[in-house]
């Protein structure tokens, strides 16, 4: 590298490191607000978060950032950079151009509206009052349509939104994988609904003391290889994982006294996210690459641990005895096979976040199809409840009795997060495809799980996925790991096999 | 206020509010590091704290800050400001001028050295090796002497340092109050040493479970009127209080299993600091006045609660029964009078932070006299151990057997904090003087404490002290509250009365 290029890179690194410092501070302020900050400090605290976010955004869109990304994108300079350096430049430039393309006053109006719309959504959901929410949501949609114009339309207008969460993902690709998935899942869901082999789930809803739930959760996280010297477990209303830096990746869970599995599976899920971030190569610290490759790849790691490992029979052949020891009275006389069937109970229900592993994907497909209608077909916001209910009837055979149980259930749209939902099912698809390779490369996969020997799995994932952080794109990762592009059949195969056996179809 | 002045004030307020946002974030990052942040994240975290501190310092010393403080200090503009606004301008200008007077490259060299010297101090203390520490400490002292030249010498060179922690305090004043105090305390300490009436303290050092200690601490904090909706209690190696904003003032304590009083009194102490910050007028939020008036006034509030209330007989007449209920086995057959005598045991010891209420002041006076020798009389750093030991022999009748138990015991000097120690005894003096007025204005003071009716005391302190934050100077506060300037006789009177009775002198 020429001397002046080295010098410029050092200055650029200092700027990136400053941005990442802001993000660490903002992350901790958020974590603290959700885990135990006193309520009377929240108002000032929110202003502080706003101030720091503003500073970070100012740096990301600064003239300096513009100059650096332009300079390092010149072919003669690019040639002197490593692959990782080029990826950093590319990602920063994309972010810079995306942010700069929106007139600042329009972005500010949008940010204020989005914050307000989230508040309106909370009230609307509570009062089952879509009409009060509709004018705000319409404005959010209008803003997003305006932003798509600033950002530039790819193949279709909705592609622009998908790309924000899953780089290079297109409607064409999602349509293909979702329709293949849907065509295989809908009959499976119907067959299960018709099956007489319903599991007994009553014992999952006895009263389980919080202390014991917490102890068991800590034990499972340790078994997964979660590093408590680089993280901690706390309690919050909604479970989450937050990577402040790769040496400080925190997770939270929520304990329901009358539901022993909720905290177990949320710990496995958030633990999966956290293992990813804890094992990102330390050399990426202080750069925008020290995070997951995309929302979908991140979700694949949480789903792999939560569902494909955590809801498997070998896992509970090893750990059910431990769970019973934590709750001897509640789980007396329960057999591991009955427990396994209970935690995999399929039921066509209204609420996405409570859905089982199988029908979850249909909840996502419905949202994806509706978002596509809004942005590519001009579906009017006022028609959302009707479209929503029709799709639930078509795919799940049930019609939400109220909008609170239907179109009003998720927070995402009120905050302008269109294009995000697809990542959840992409995560499941990536995970199943990775699982297939994992089983081939580690043929003793099931035996190891049944023996509680989980660390080789964590090591394989670190080697193949975790360490790279965002230095590879989602498509590079899935192809590098599995040798082929995203293929929804792995998920469909996995689900068909699992549920055919479970429900003796 | 003229229109253009109003507009300028709004811009100035935005700058102040941004600085205070940085300080809130830095405060939380520190709190988190000390209460439970995972160790592997600490290195990146320290860099983040450094970055944010740098940003905050940059704003405090910015050209903008210079322009604002110059503008608002013009007589024609000052006339249009409220008292509080004028105090804000005055404090910001003082800070600005102090910081700007040091050449940035010298300050940076100093900051690096100070950080390194703290590390060297830790090792030197552990190895009882003053010689290895001496060259570093010498450089710190040289830097401080150089800074005094930049800052400007007041009456004596050491005055410049005192003023940083206690505005307008001078050697002349401290000499006067400390010599009066010393002349009354030394004979009292000698009389106690000669007294045959030694209390039994054995029962304080039985084994006390942490859970019960925590429960009792929470109970006492609640009794004091500490607002748990605007704060929280956590555990850390060294107890501290930190006001992130007046709606979020956190305290920590440390539990020693074989010492039940350590956590109780540190909770009362930190609780006193926290009550102060929780009750600062909300209108000061986002300005530099939303903090205590000075180190000494702050310390007066912690000492008042810890010692004058918390180590009083009426307090334990009310609460000893509660403590016994938390530890029935450990405190069986202990009478409240015996407990009261035990917690007020006087013993001439080497370590300041473990000293009793009485001899504590002598530890401080020794440090003050030594600092004065260094900065006003040219005492050489290499002679510190000898001077230290001689003073301990003179005032406390004991000679430290090692430097670790002597001159190496405190962290302050290694970080360049000269001028700070005096605040601790000033706090005791302010507190005793305030207590005298408090007893006059609330004649039922002792009966109320004995009845557990502590809230009127908190209200009186809020009314007279807490609410003002830093909008009054320390001298304004002590004169407004007690009608006279700082007078050391109140502390001497209080201690003489208390210990004459306790030791039947």
Automatic annotation (TrEMBL), chains A, B:
Protein's UniProt keywords contain Protease: yes
GO molecular function, one term: zinc ion binding
Pfam families: Peptidase_M32
Family matches, as InterPro entries: Peptidase_M32_Taq
Biological process (GO), any one: proteolysis
Keywords: Carboxypeptidase, Hydrolase, Metal-binding, Metalloprotease, Protease, Zinc
Cofactor notes: Binds 1 zinc ion per subunit.
Catalytic reaction equation(s): Release of a C-terminal amino acid with broad specificity, except for -Pro
Highest taxon listed in the record's lineage: Bacteria
Catalytic residues in the record: 270
EC supergroup of this enzyme: hydrolase
PANTHER family to which the protein is assigned, alphabetical: CARBOXYPEPTIDASE 1 (PTHR34217:SF1), METAL-DEPENDENT CARBOXYPEPTIDASE (PTHR34217)
Protein name: Metal-dependent carboxypeptidase
Organism the protein comes from: Paenibacillus wynnii
